[in-house]
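INFO  loader      accepted 1 record
INFO  loader      residues=236
INFO  predictor   begin
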Amino acid sequence: MDTAYVTLSRQTGLMNEMRLVANNIANAHTTGYRQQGLVFSEFVRDLPGSPSLSMSRAQARNTSFAQGVLTETGGQFDFAIEGSGFFLVETPSGNRLTRAGSFSPDANGDLVTMDGHRVLDSNGAPVFIPPDAATIDVGGDGTLSANGQALGQIGVVQPTEGTELVREGSTLFKPEGEVEPVEQPVVLNRFLEGSNVNAIGQVARLIEIQRAYELGQSFLDAEDERVRGALKTLMR
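INFO  predictor   done
INFO  writer      dumping tokens
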């Protein structure tokens, strides 16, 4: 039965990775999405009077923060960060970080995300767009101005050393610690950063996982037949 437990632990990990890879593929065209991966580790348990039992665990996730493809959209309030950093946005649960820069002014003039979260400036205050502004000029560091008047600078921050980022939803990250402004941010206006998912690589990985899972299932079916056969023989 120890062999079956080991296989079951592997099957569970493969199923978790299959869901993760499928989610990556589904978000291959989601603006600002970061690809996720699963980390497999070995769990060893000592068993009295018998060899130790080694099982796989797949609970830890990692996230790729590689640069996604930058695409020119022409949208006045579309922004993309080239290089390191995140946009700082305000949510009902607190400030969050994101690379998805598709913004627009709301009815109050605040610059908000597609989900209605207010975009914050470098000082943590909401970015306000005057309703009567004829044109909005954007500097290379994210500084906004209208009619020759400075409006503020879109906040581009990064986590400090030791701060972990916890994913929330598709494109938001909760910093478990402090963040700090990026010294010389590069913000592109009328551009958006696409998902950094390697779609071809993820599809190939999904096929590998499915084959590995089917192999494990075949072994479990054969083991079940063996145990059933042994029980029938003993009952006779």
